[in-house]
């Protein structure tokens, strides 16, 4: 994904037990590439980009039925 430099550093910190530093070392750009955050329109746009990529799975974790419903409808 182009974040080798960061993932190695994050892994080193995490394995060393420096969890807070590992979290802080995750680049915003990387988090943005692998997450769905933001407005409904932005999430729809990101889903469209993922549909055009080699990604074959999407893991969703939410306690909000309305969020799950929105994602299901946006993926149709």
Write the layout of secondary structure elements.
Blueprint: H1 4-15, H2 19-24, H3 28-34, H4 40-51, H5 65-74
Features of this protein?
2 domains, 5 helices, mainly alpha, 76 residues
Give an overview of the whole structure.
It is a single chain. The chain is mainly alpha-helical. The protein has five helices and no strands. The protein is elongated and about 40 Å long.
Apparent shape = elongated
Number of helices: 5
Number of domains: 2
Main sheet record: none
H/E element string?
A: HHHHH
Distance between the termini: 26 Å
Low-confidence stretches: none
What percentage of amino acids are in beta strands? under 5%
User: How many β-strands, per DSSP?
Assistant: 0
How much helicity do the residues have? 55-70%
Whole-number average pLDDT? 89
Please compute the radius of gyration using only Cα atoms.
15 Å
Label the structural class: mainly alpha
Give me a quick take on this structure.
This protein is mainly α. The chain has 5 helices and no strands. It has helices at residues 4-15, 19-24, 28-34, 40-51, 65-74.
